[in-house]
Amino acid sequence: MHRGKGMKFVGDSRIPAVRKPNVPKDYSEYPGKTEAFWPNFLLKEWMVGAVFLVGYLCLTVAHPSPLERVADPTDTGYIPLPDWYFLFLYQLLKYTYASGPYNVIGAFVIPGLAFGGLLLAPFIDRGPERRPIKRPFATGFMLLALAATIFLTWESVIHHDWEAAEAQGKIVEEADFDKNDEGYKIFADQKNGCINCHGENLTGGAAAPSLVGTGLKPEEIKKIAHEGKGAMPPNMFKGTDEELDKMAEFISNLK
């Protein structure tokens, strides 16, 4: 188009006349040797994340998650245990001023302050330095959080009863029985306390063994009910002798 009298040109300032190559600026002259977020820094983050992701995938394939028995809401003796990355919070709730009447402090206040501090750390420490030794606040806070997490996780691991946990989560074969049987009704009666430890399906838990396929005779079962055994105290059964006979016969026939 030729220039002419009365001719006007309309352009868009968002479109550059000369297309520049997508090369980030050189920040080497700035304090801290900051680099461009895109693509330099973000590419490094993606590469490191990909390495860790592949490592975790290999770990899950080599060591699959263990399966436990079906959850039983009637098993009051079951001791729950969270995944390893929550063990430090689990251990925190065991201490005096973070459990019981102070449960709100251990469950909300302390974790809220810790994670809130981590979120605010980038806004509080806004210096250009990237070396840890010249960032005392951020470095100290991260070391404190890391040390507390490792310590609480370690304490939770060494004080947990792993044998009892394995026993309570063990998959056992359930017996096929009629819950309308009179012997089972006596077993399930709350006043006798049997179902609270041995479970609705008599498969036991952390506090009591399974009653399925014990091979015990009715007389032996009645003796245990009177004298106790292991963690079971004597005279737990509160029913009559006739009820105990029916329950013992029912348990001895479980296969």
UniProtKB/TrEMBL annotation:
The keyword tRNA-binding does not apply. Residues 27-154 form the Cytochrome b/b6 C-terminal region profile domain. Heme c binds at residues 194, 197-198. The chain crosses the membrane at residues 46-63, 102-124, 136-154. InterPro entries: Cyt_b/b6_C (IPR005798), Cyt_b/b6_C_sf (IPR036150), Cyt_c-like_dom (IPR009056), Cyt_c-like_dom_sf (IPR036909), Cytb/b6-like_sf (IPR027387), Cytochrome_c550/c551-like (IPR051811), MenaQ_cyt_c_Rdtase_cyt_b/c-su (IPR012049). The main subunits of the menaquinol:cytochrome c complex are a Rieske-type iron-sulfur protein (QcrA), a cytochrome b (QcrB) and a cytochrome c (QcrC). Belongs to the cytochrome b family. This is Menaquinol:cytochrome c reductase cytochrome c subunit. It comes from Pseudobacillus wudalianchiensis.
